[in-house]
Amino acid sequence: MSASSQDYRRYEELRLSLKDVQRGFERAALSWPNLIHKLVSAPDKSLSIEAWNAFRDSNRKSDGGWDWWEPFPDGSYCSQFLGEEKWLEVFYRLAESGMLVLKEIAGLQEVKGATPDGMRATLPDVGYRSGWLSLVYGTAELATSLLRAKFWAWNVPEGTFIDEVDSLMYDSWTESPGGVSIPLHPPYYQLHLDLFNSSVEAIRCWLFPEAVTSLWNLGGDSPINLPSTNDDGSENLKAILTSVPSPTNNTEDRPQPRYDKKRRVLYVGDDKAKELKKPARNVVLLLSAFEEMGWPPVIDDPIPPTIGIVRQQRLKNTIDSLNTGLRLIRFGGNGTGKAVKWWHLDDGRSSEQG
Q1: Biggest alpha carbon–alpha carbon distance for the chain
Q2: Distance between CA 315 and CA 203 in Å, rounded?
């Protein structure tokens, strides 16, 4: 099917509709207290709704404050909302409005020539509300000054050794009073800003992808990319990026990584990038695979498949764990959920998110 001029106009109309949703989030962001959000991840595999409800009951706020828990339909994550209950319905309404617009935009991808080059709308199949959260957190991986997320283990003090945290995320389980097995310290993500301001920034990244500046130069792709078909100043926006170097693996005359399995230390040249005091099995498998292959820019996921485990989510959690506290280099996915790449951090800063 080929596009008509009407299809092209419809694409721009939908971008304007998304800007209307953005303005709705901006108005909601003026409220206080606002909605804070935490996204708890199932360790290795999805949890049943019964298990997530048992986890919720074991982690209710004890100070009498309001919170609301909502598992994703597929059991991969569970949301915790904090703040004031009256703003939850506002978020639901805006999120569903935004997803309806994005769903129609995604449908235009099927029409040849109806969208500009580089347009992308990859929507998760988890419903409108959970889908919006997935897209906001997925975009937060770009790590802009306003949109980024902290990755840590539930109910674990932030001063805890990184390698101990990694083990706690996946190996600590207990039984609820109802006899349901639940994780004690699952991985979780928390947005840097409240949920309304984070949604505003996510939409900005989608509508003006050429103007996105990542703090850590991660080089990842946003799930949504909606460049304009009009000359609306995008060339000027591109100038913003000229001073931001792209992640590169041009390793000529640059120190190479080296994993000392016996000492459990990852080096870059002679500098220590990370010491794994109590490494998780999947992190060791990943580093050992790179070491055995001589550190090529990208390798396939080396972690063996396991029945009942979502492989893409496990790889993402492994990469996030490895990147926490890491210096000098950075690891990331290649967008397929089946491979891992690495690159140098130009300034050698810590790769901790927050």
Answers
A1: 64
A2: 27
Q: Is 148 in contact with 158 (CB distance < 8 Å)? A: no
pLDDT score, position 216: 65
pLDDT at 76: 94
> Average of pLDDT values for 151-175?
88
Query: Is the confidence at residue 256, as pLDDT, over 90?
Result: yes
Reference 191, options 103, 124, 132; nearest CA is 132
**Strands 120-121 and 224-225: what pairing?**
antiparallel
Residues in the chain: 354
Q: Where are the alpha helices (DSSP H) in 193-310?
A: 195-207, 234-238, 281-292
The span from the CA of 118 to the CA of 337, in Å, is: 20
Tell me the CA distances in angstroms from 89 to 119, 254, 273, one per residue in order: 31, 52, 45
More confident residue, 154 or 114: 154
Cα 77 to Cα 192: distance, rounded to the nearest angstrom: 18
